[in-house]
Every structure is written in structure tokens, then in C-alpha cells.
Amino acid sequence: MLHFLAPLTLIALAQLRLARADYSTLFVGCVSYSFSPSTSTSTFSTLDAQDCASYCYGDSQGPWTYAYFNPEAPIRKRGPAPTMCICSMEAPAAAEYATSSDTTGSATCDTNQLTMLTSASTYTFEGCYETAKLDNPSTAKLGTYADPQGCLASCKAYEVAAWYPLSGGLSCACASSSSFERGTLGGCGPTRPYFATHAVGDSINSQFAKRQLRERLVKERSERTALCPKAMTACRVPGAFIDSFECINTAEELESCGGCAQGFFNDNDAANASIGVDCTSVPGVARGGVSCTSGTCEVFACRPGWVLLAGACVPS
């Protein structure tokens, strides 16, 4: 029996494809079926892995970085057999990457695994190899990243991005295609190098890329804490990059008195302290007519036209 999609479903799928028309999806691994990201959304009505990626890109809560697809959802309903599509910003730990039984190096996962894709990418999947090595590592960019997208973004200026899962993250190599010696194609898995290629310099300039950056910065900041000497606080530097800070004694600092006037760098400080005050901006205060003592602005001189009254300058 033939099954037909309802017109509204067809329209929705077409809109999702148009939203991602400028970019392709990219296969980035086979994942254990038990993988369960802490933050995600899901649907049981996509046709295949590509439609799953389109759904994740066009979802109202997205764009999501990753799409996880399985052709057999763990639910039962009347009509066509449901599929499972999970959208998330999270990538699995190295131990959750699974080995495909496919030996051709293609983007094929077993039915008891999740097919993992980026919902939009400038890269094209080349294949998985049993072995690979760099002829001249000094000409390549090497690093370890938390997820495939980190590796892909790092390799923007290179023709090839190659990675494989390690216990501490993904080992990543960026280089020209001719710089690699590739072995025999093999089933994709945690011990096999994944290869993807794109035109040098291509990138995604969209809400998708902006959300990826925001999520990555939030994650990185949550994983590290700025350390300052005792009695000093890590405060944001105005106009600088989000990870810039300076150590300030907020009990005495004139421009951040009582706390960080430009915001705290460490989340725990922000939760347990008050926003500071720039004492020099207090209305009516004369230049050099204020100090910060024990976290409080103390005014002792006012500008012409103002008078000191009860520790504050008021118009005369």
C-alpha cells in the first residue's frame, strides 16, 4: 500500500529544505543508540537522515548543531513506521561513538546505532579510513576539540578536516588533501579517521554559526574559572573579548566600587555579589572628590553649582 504525506507536511519539509538550501549536511559519525543529550528536541516523522537534519536546522528552537537519526523509533503507531530524529547542540563522548559494520567507509550506520550529522555544513564527507597519516605534520594544524564542529571550524582555512575520537576529545588535523596518506577505506568508528573536504575559506555566515559560537563560549566559560589573588575579584574588561578579565579589589577600586561595574567574569561571583559602582560617575562629584572605602563611594567634594549634603552632591 502506498502512503502519502499530508500537504501541510510536504510544505513544512519544503520550507525546511529552503532554510538550509545554501548548505549541505555532513555525516560525522555513528553513535550508540543509548546516547541521550541533556538538552534536545525530537520528532518521529522525518523521512530519513537528511530530513532529520533539515528539521533540526529549521526547528523554532534551533538551528541545532547536530541531528541524530534512526530509521526505527522505539514507539508504535498506525500508518507508516515512525523514525526517530533527535536535535541537540551536544556531541557524544568518545566512548559513545560506535563502529559501523559497513566496510566501505561510507556514511552508513547500523540500525541499532544513531546516524550523527551536522544540520548544515560547507564540508562534504569523504570517508572513513582504517589508517591515515600526515606526510609533513609541520604544515598542518593539529588540535584536540570537544566535538566535530570544533574541528571543522578550526579547519576553515584548509582543504581537509580529519578527526577521530579520543578519550579526551577529538583529535583533529587540518591540511591540504595531498598532505595525507590514506589507507584502506573501512567502517566508521572510534578508531578510524574521518575525512571531510571543502573549498578553502568557506564558512557558514548565519544564525546557525552565531548560535554555535554562543553555545561554545558558554560551555568553555562554564568549564573554567578565572583565578585572582585573595581579596580580588575577576571582572570583565569593557569592550574586550568575552573571555577577557582583570583582577580588581572592589573594596577600594574607584571605578568598580563594591563589585564589578562591567560585570563579573565568574558566574559564582555574579550570584553572590552586587554589581559595582563607578564612583567617578556619581552626579555632581568634583574631579578627585570621591573615594571608594570598604566597597562604598565616599564623596567629599562637589562641582560648582552642587553642594555636599549627607554624603551626596545635590544641586545648590
Automatic annotation (TrEMBL):
The keyword Signal applies. Residues 245-308 form the Protein CPL1-like domain. Pfam families: CPL1-like. Keywords: Signal. InterPro entries: CPL1-like, PriA/CPL1_fungi. The keyword Lyase does not apply. Residues 1-21 form the signal peptide. This is Protein CPL1-like domain-containing protein. It comes from Kwoniella heveanensis BCC8398. The lineage of its organism: Eukaryota, Fungi, Dikarya, Basidiomycota, Agaricomycotina.
